[in-house]
């Protein structure tokens, strides 16, 4: 006799569909903090549903021996052809365990992103946290492509020297925005700030004093991120060039 578990099959099928639709990986950079938390909640709910429906008495009688071509029974090499008693619902508990493990990893990733943002933004004003440093276009002297003999490729943005601005302070603002963009999700950050080279997954930056200003050099961890950084920098350069042209005309 075979006991069918149709609802469990539906839940498991739905779980697989969600897994396929979700971004691969549970590392912090795979998605935003909010998305990690949402996936964790969904996986937890699915796991709870699987456990709630589990029937310890469900039995699936599966034959170990098949009919031979001559109509007889093909027996196992050792022993009789017993009909094993298998609980088909056991895979529900296995899937629930897997989902709970994934949920824990997603929660940890979400917490790591939030903690990194909080640590990087300590002492940074609310305005400087919310506004990209590259939004201050009047204070940008130049935007150029960064290429050197070591193969580094990316963008270089030079800010004018301003009262109370130091390389250390600007570096902290840049680090804050890198962590903040990772927490809110680079896709969302890029959509909101298409002119900001920091709104790119895999972006890395360093700040140094140069003459009468400060240079921010941004490069990526792979060719795709480098290409996107350059694209953002080109948009920023176009805006800065337009502002400088308007400023000269007003003079």
Summarize the structure.
The protein is built from seven helices and six strands; from the N terminus they run ααββααββααββα. It is of the alpha+beta class. It folds into two domains: 115 residues; 123 residues, no CATH class.
Query: How many discrete domains?
Result: 2
How would you describe the shape? elongated
| Mean pLDDT reading | 81
Helix content: 40-55%
Main beta sheet: strand number and arrangement? 4 strands, antiparallel
Give the H and E element order. HHEEHHEEHHEEH
- Evaluate the radius of gyration: 29 Å
Number of helices: 7
Oligomer kind: single chain
The strand line-up of the biggest sheet is 3-4-6-5
The low-confidence parts are: 1-23, 69-74
**Whole-Å distance between the termini?**
92 Å
Structural class: alpha+beta
């Amino acid at each position: 006799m075979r006991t069918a578990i149709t609802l469990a099959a539906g839940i498991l099928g739905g779980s697989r569909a969600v897994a396929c639709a979700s971004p691969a990986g549970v590392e912090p950079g795979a998605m935003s903090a909010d998305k990690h938390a949402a996936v964790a909640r969904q996986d937890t709910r699915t796991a709870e549903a699987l456990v709630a429906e589990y029937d310890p008495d469900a039995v699936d009688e599966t034959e170990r021996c098949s009919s031979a071509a001559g109509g007889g029974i093909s027996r196992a090499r050792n022993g009789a052809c017993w009909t094993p008693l298998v609980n088909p619902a056991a895979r529900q508990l296995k899937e629930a365990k897997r989902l709970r493990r994934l949920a824990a990893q997603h929660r940890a990733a979400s917490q790591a992103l939030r903690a990194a943002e909080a640590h990087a933004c300590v002492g940074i004003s609310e305005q400087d946290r919310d506004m990209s440093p590259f939004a201050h276009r009047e204070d940008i002297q130049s935007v150029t492509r960064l290429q050197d003999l070591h193969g580094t490729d990316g963008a270089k943005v030079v800010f004018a020297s301003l009262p109370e601005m130091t390389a250390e302070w600007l570096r902290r603002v840049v680090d804050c925005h890198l962590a903040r963009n990772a927490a809110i999700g680079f896709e969302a950050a890029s959509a909101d700030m298409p002119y900001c080279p920091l709104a790119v997954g895999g972006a890395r930056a360093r700040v140094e004093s140069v003459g009468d200003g400060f240079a921010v050099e941004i490069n990526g961890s792979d060719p795709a991120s480098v290409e996107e950084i350059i694209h953002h920098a080109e948009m920023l350069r176009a805006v800065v060039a337009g502002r400088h042209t308007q400023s000269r005309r007003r003079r």
